[in-house]
Each structure stands twice: as structure tokens, then as C-alpha cells.
């Protein structure tokens, strides 16, 4: 029991020590008398502190009552203010609804006008962004886009200045589309290098510089040179319009703004067409080149021989540098021969000259016959390739069959291109050689008739 009393007393002393903040720190008790004395001192200090607090609270009670009355009065005033504001808010809502109805009635078709204006601004912004005129006047589409977004995201109406801005932009687009203008800008060339060049803009259709067609990229707002250019006659028109200072100039205009030009530059060139013919196409062209060389040689040779024969016809003495002179020398070499012998010798001399006059004509004729057959061979080969592609991949993608079909058609065209000129050349050269042989035979017949009359 003594221990429990000691523990209880110690706990109470700790509580008293923690509450009495103004009391002096106590020394640790040695015996029960000191502990009891310390407890008495702690109770006295705590009672004294509580009394002081009560006196201070009573002294401030009047002040607290005044603060309470002021707070109640402020609350009452604010409640009244809230009621007034709520009443005003309801009145404003009623007035606003009435004004909105009045505004809607008074606007009428004007609201539809602003809706059309917003649509026109959006359409014009899209058109300006893709127009080549933006290469000379950048930033036009952003202004119209901002105006359209402003009119669509808010209930504010467009001002007179903003309406005039749309009208002015459309008018400028129409005006510039009818001009051929020159301006300086940065051009990205086909090899990737960038350089400031003078660009000629043909309305809203094409851009050219240094005799080449350019392309305007709306995503980056840059001007780039086409990697593949159209055929030479279009490039010649581009150079002409660059060099012109006025007047009318022929120019390859693209009214679609680049679509036709994009398809035109994708068309294969003559060399690419020939490559599509494959090995058969190259063989046909080689035969055509050889036949053309033979035809050229025969044409020059027959032309020279014909000129010599014409000179020989005007002379009485036989010359050894032409077929007719060599045939006439047979008469001079056989003055005592009878008519039949002379006729045989003249026929022999003519037969000796015929191979020289008709040399290589047979080969030209063979080429004119073989060339279309080679084209037919290429056609069959191309169709085989096409059917193999159909067997492997089906008919879903026509591009897979395009290679074989191109080979089939190109070889056919090459065969006809070689065969037709070779046929015409053979006919022309054969006719010329026959005419020379006919002259030899005619003169030989005259010589025989003259010998017969003399006999």
C-alpha cells in the first residue's frame, strides 16, 4: 500500500508540474515529507494562476459582449445585402432573357450572314494555304483561320474591319491569280541545297525558276524544285516565260494547281520506255540500228552510182568507174563478135553488176520481217510475266501486272517502229537499184540492136 501511495503521489506531482507553467522547477523528493510539501506548493501555485485567469476573463467579458454584438450586426447586414443581390440577379436574368430575344429578332438574317462569313473564311483559309500565291505572300491563311475560330468559339459578331479583311483577301487572291509576277524567295533545289532565286509565278497555277518547274509545299511553306521535270517542250516554255518582258508567251499551264504536272512528271521518258521492253526490246533496237546503217550505205552508194551512170549516158567513150561504162566496154572489147555472142557477153556483164547494186538489200528486207516477229516474242514473254504475277498475287493490285503488260506493249511498238521504216527503205532502195539495172539492160539492148543493124 505504501508503494501504491508513493506511485499515486508521484503521478499527481507530475500532472501538477506540467499544468503549472509559472511554478519553479522542483527538486526530486527525498522522503514523504518533502513530497507532501512540494504537492502543497504546487496546488497553491495552480490555484493562484486560475484566480488570475478568472479575473482577466471577467475584465474582458464586456469587450467580448461588444464583439459579439458587432458580429451579429455584421451578419444581419450581409444577409440583407445578399437578399438585395439575389433580387437584382433575378431581375438581371429576366432582363437578359428579354434582351436576348430582342437581339435574336432584330438580327434575323444578319446572323445567317455571319455564319456564311465564317464558312467563307474557313474555305478561303484552306484555299490560301494550298495556293502558290502564298509563296509570295505568306501568312494569309492564318489571319482568316483566327477570324473563323473567333466567330465560332464566341458569341461576338465580326466587326466591319474583319468583314472587310475577308473581302480584301478574296479580292487580292482573284487579282493575283491573273498576274505573272516575279519575286525573290528561298528555293530548295533537287540536290537538297537551298538558294535565293528569282521565281516567276504564273497566276495561281505554276512556279518556275532557272527554266525548271517548282512546287509549293503548304505544310512547310517552302518552295522546292521538282525532282523529275516534264518533257523538253514544257521546259522550253518555262525558259521562254522567264526571259519574256511582255507580250504573249506559250507556256505549259497546269490549271489544277499541280495535279496534272505531278502526273506528267511521273510519265516515263523515252529511255525508260525502252528499258521496259527488256532484252527483247534491246535486240529489236540493235537490229533496227544495223538495218539503218546498211540502208544509209546503200542509199549513198546508189546515189553516187546513179550520178556516174547519168554522166556516162551523156558520153560516147566508156569509163570503167561505173556499171554502164563497164557494160559498154564489152562492145569495145569484142568488135568482131556476132550478135548472139555479144548478147551473151552483155548479159554476163549485167549479171556481174547486179549483185553490186543490190548488195545488203536482202538483209534489210529480213530485218523488216524479223522485227515484228521479235516484237511478238516480247509480247508473249510479257504476258507470261503478267500471268505469273496473277498466279502469285491475284488481281487485287494492278501495279503488280503493270511490268509484264508494259513489256508486252513496248516490244510490240518497238518491233513495228523498226519494221515500218525498214520496209519503206527496202522498197525505196530496191526501186532505185532496179532502175539502174533497167538502164543497163536498156543500153545493152541498144548495143545489140546497133550490132545487128551493122551486120
Short summary of the structure?
This protein has 455 residues and is of the alpha+beta class. It has helices spanning 2-19, 32-107, 109-130, 140-153, 160-176, 232-243, 259-266, 270-276, 278-313, 323-333, 339-357, 361-393, 399-454, and strands at residues 180-188, 194-202, 206-209, 212-217, 222-225.
Description of the molecule:
- Belongs to the exbB/tolQ family.
- Its main location: membrane.
- Strand 3 and strand 4 form a beta hairpin.
- The chain has helices at about 1-20, 30-105, 110-130, 140-155, 160-175, 230-245, 260-265, 270-275, 280-315, 325-335, 340-355, 360-395, 400-455; strands at about 180-190, 195-200, 205-210, 210-215, 220-225.
- The protein has 13 helices and 5 strands.
- With about 450 residues, the protein is α+β, with helices and mostly antiparallel strands.
- The longest helix has about 80 residues, at about 30-105.
- Mean pLDDT is about 80; it is low at about 1-25.
- The protein is elongated and about 190 Å long.
- Strands 1-2-3-4-5 form a 5-stranded mixed barrel.
